[in-house]
Specification:
3 domains; Arc Repressor Mutant, subunit A; elongated
C-alpha cells in the first residue's frame, strides 16, 4: 500500500494515534509522492504536503497547541489562495516597518520576516491589512511625517529623509496624494488648532 492508500488514516481524517513506525512510513510516502508530483502536478504536491503537515502536527507531543512559525491555519493549499497573516506575522511586519521606515524598505525584505514568499506575502498582507504592502508603506511614511510635524519644528526636507523619502518634493507629492493637502498647509492648520 502506498501513502495515498492510507490518506484516510491520517489523524484527524479517520484514525487517531497511529503507531510511530506507521506514521513515519506514511509521512515518508507522502513526502516522496509530493516530490514526484511537484514538477507535473503542483496542486497534488500541495495537497500531499498539507496531509504530511497535518500528520506531523497531530502526531507531535502536545499537538494542536503550538505551530511552527509560518503555519497559517486559514490557508487552504488545495485552494491555492492566501488567507491573512497570522498575529505573529502581523506584529513582525509592524515592528519591522516601524524600525526601518527611515530607510529603504523592499517588500521582499518585509516578506522575509514573516517567512513567506514574496508573492504569497503580498496576497496575505492585503487580506490582513486591507491594502497592498506598498500602500501601507506610503501611509506609514506619511503618518510618521504628520507626527514629526506636530511634535517638532524640523524642516520638511529633514522630515522627508527621516521618513525614508528622497527629498521634500517627494514628501510633498506623496503627502498631497494621501491627504489632499500640502505638508506646509497641513502643518499650519494643525499648529493653529493646537
Amino acid at each position: 500500500m502506498d501513502a495515498q492508500d492510507h490518506a484516510g488514516l491520517v489523524p484527524g481524517e479517520g484514525a487517531h494515534g497511529l503507531p510511530p513506525r506507521f506514521a513515519t512510513a506514511l509521512l515518508a510516502g507522502l513526502l516522496e509522492q509530493a516530490g514526484r508530483a511537484l514538477e507535473h502536478d503542483p496542486g497534488a504536491a500541495r495537497s500531499l504536503l498539507a496531509r504530511a503537515s497535518t500528520l506531523l502536527r497531530q502526531e507531535a507531543p502536545g499537538h494542536g497547541t503550538a505551530h511552527a512559525p509560518g503555519y497559517n491555519p486559514g490557508h487552504n493549499p488545495e485552494r491555492g489562495g492566501a488567507s491573512g497573516l497570522s498575529p505573529w506575522q502581523e506584529r513582525r511586519v509592524r515592528e519591522h516597518v516601524a524600525t526601518h521606515l527611515g530607510g529603504t524598505l523592499r517588500v521582499d525584505d518585509i516578506a522575509a520576516v514573516t517567512r513567506l514568499s514574496g508573492s504569497y506575502f503580498k496576497r496575505a498582507f492585503k487580506v490582513s491589512f486591507g491594502e497592498t504592502p506598498h500602500g501601507y508603506l506610503r501611509r506609514m511614511r506619511i503618518e510618521r511625517a504628520k507626527r514629526m510635524m506636530l511634535e517638532g519644528r524640523e524642516p520638511l526636507a529633514q522630515i522627508a529623509l527621516a521618513c525614508g523619502l528622497a527629498d521634500q518634493a517627494h514628501l510633498s507629492r506623496l503627502f498631497r496624494q494621501i491627504t489632499g493637502s500640502s505638508p506646509s498647509a497641513w502643518r499650519r492648520r494643525h499648529a493653529s488648532a493646537a
